[in-house]
Amino acid sequence: MSDRFSALVAAAAVFVLASGCGSFKSSTSQASSESSSNIVSSPFKWSSKSSKSSSGGEGAADAALRRDVLDAAASLARSSGDGSGFHRDVSRIADEHGVVDWDADPAVWAAIGCGLERGEPAPERRAALEQVLARAQADRIDWIRSGYGSASAP
After folding, report:
1. Cα separation of 149 and 136, whole Å?
2. Could you read off the pLDDT of 120-147 as tens digits, one per residue?
3. Which of 25, 52, 62, 111 has its CA 20 to 30 A from that of 101?
4. pTM of the predicted structure, to 2 decimals
5. Residue-number span of the structural domain to which 70 is assigned
């Protein structure tokens, strides 16, 4: 089981790095939105322990969660906040999407990284936010950083 988890984490990181933040971008066309949702959720499936499916289906729910988390992280990066309430905010967002145990999902952490990048904080602030948000846990910092890498992302 740990090999499978490691493979899923590696697949998620490769996917996010290869596609950049654009994978989390919302689309105006329904077809593109559905396609993006399927792509974003395909490397990792929520377990029944981690998610309750919404009426939009698992892929749409997962993509919506990641988009909302990305937006929250971008807002934090643009603000002067210290990130101390961020976990509570993400827990509330996850709860709204019917997701529990969000902090064990590398894709949510990658969305946080993508949001931090979009918020364009100074490098020192971004590094400080990584530490605070990940609570200095190396795996979470790596997952956050896996969300970086798309300079052309809106």
Report:
1. 21
2. 999 999 999 999 999 999 999 999 999 9
3. 25
4. 0.65
5. 2-145
